[in-house]
Amino acid sequence: MITNNATNYTSSDFHRFLESWDIEHITSSPHHHQSNGWAEAAVKLMKNMIKKSTKEGTDTWKVILEWRNAATPGMHSSPTQRFFFRRTHSMLPCKTTDYTQQVQAEVQDSLIKK
Q1: Cα end-to-end span (Å), the chain
Q2: What pTM was estimated for this model as a whole?
């Protein structure tokens, strides 16, 4: 987990939680936004999606659902597939076999390669 070094991420309760779940915690400077590039890029992406869906009058939650079902470049699977081991139902037509559970074996290899 990568976070800024804000006070809510430095409490003893939070550190105990991370240790109990065996989560590695990497911190960056809280007021230096460039060092937290991934989070800033994700916030920028979400803001643009919300603005665009509001402007077009579409349902923002459906837009986010479709984004979560879209494959991540270089990973060959979507965030939803990596979390639930399957796709979630979307507004786009899919084969019924796409909704069966499948462990995404190449995810760990792709992360190591990155």
Answers
A1: 16
A2: 0.50
Closest CA to 38 of 7, 2, 78, 71: 2
Beta bridge partners of 26: 2
Tens digit of each residue's pLDDT (9 = 90 or more) over 66-77: 888 887 777 777
Asked if 8 and 14 count as a contact pair (C-beta separation under 8 A), the reply is yes
Structure tokens at 75: 């990973």
How far is the CA of 38 from the CAs of 8, 12, 33, 44, 79, in angstroms? 19, 25, 10, 10, 15
In this predicted structure, the answer to whether residue 91 has a pLDDT above a threshold of 80 is no
pLDDT the model gives residue 82? 78
Residues 55 and 26: their CA atoms lie apart, in Å, by: 37
Asked if 53 and 30 count as a contact pair (C-beta separation under 8 A), the reply is: no
36 DSSP assignment = G
